[in-house]
Amino acid sequence: MSVRVLVVDDDERERIVLRYVLEQIKDVEIIGEAVHGLEALLLCQERKVNLVFLDIGMPEMGGMETAYKLNQLKEPPLFAFITQKKDMAVEAFELGALDYMVKPIELTRIEKTIERAKVRIAHRDVVEEMVKHKLKERIDFILERYRNYEIYSNRLPVREKGKISLLNQDDIIYCESQGKKVYICTSSGDYMTNYTLNELESRLNNISFFRAHQAFIVNLNYVKEIASSTEGSYVLHLSILNKDVILSRAKARALKEKLGIV
Fold this sequence. Notes:
This protein folds into two domains: 3-129, 3-Layer(aba) Sandwich (Rossmann fold); 156-259, CATH 2.40.50.1020. The radius of gyration is 34 Å and the shape is elongated. The two termini are 63 Å apart. Strand 6 (155-160) and strand 7 (163-168) form a beta hairpin. It has helices spanning 12-23, 37-46, 63-70, 89-94, 107-152, 197-203, 249-259, and strands at 3-8, 28-34, 51-54, 78-83, 100-102, 155-160, 163-168, 172-178, 181-186, 189-193, 209-213, 216-219, 223-228, 234-238, 244-247. By secondary structure, it is an alpha/beta fold. The chain contains seven helices and 15 strands. Helix 2 (37-46) runs parallel beside helix 3 (63-70). The strands form four sheets. A five-stranded parallel β-sheet has the order 2-1-3-4-5, sandwiched between helices.
């Protein structure tokens, strides 16, 4: 793994020394130099930078402000300080510095910083790959659901007598469980199905359909009124067919919330 490094120091002699040290270390690619923080930020936006070595006392934009702004980038690089100042290490590490070194620099210390950078970069790459993989799985899942929704959103396939009828969901008035059988009542007739009510509840459009009772799913577009009944229960009167559907107290609360009834 090659670590792409940017050297930032307003003192040319210090940059020359650091460059020479970095050139002695394996897997280091020096991609540029900057004399102040603003130039460093521009380079980090233009090029892929893994690690920035920062001086603190620089004109126009010092090292601390530069580090803060590096953290705001879309793909923030790692950074380490190399400075004359001995009393700003705490602030540096609070900003997330990989290291804080007081000049003059030592080859072994720079090597350790590079090795830590490699570990952090590798970890970041693994996390990014995991996130991309999970994101891809999620997108694939959503797309598959969307494709299924497009195909089945307004059609419900029902097997009967050697054929499959594709029912328009808008034509379904209610679904009722009677013993081990589930019937779908439509404006054109009734269908006995192999679906369970739970399966129908998951397949039908949940905007229009409501599980009014353990044994009923009703199309709210066909509900004419909600009438109170005995012991806190309610009855749904349908606008067509001579059919009433019992609504429990708990289901009534859920239906009121769904319809926005206060």
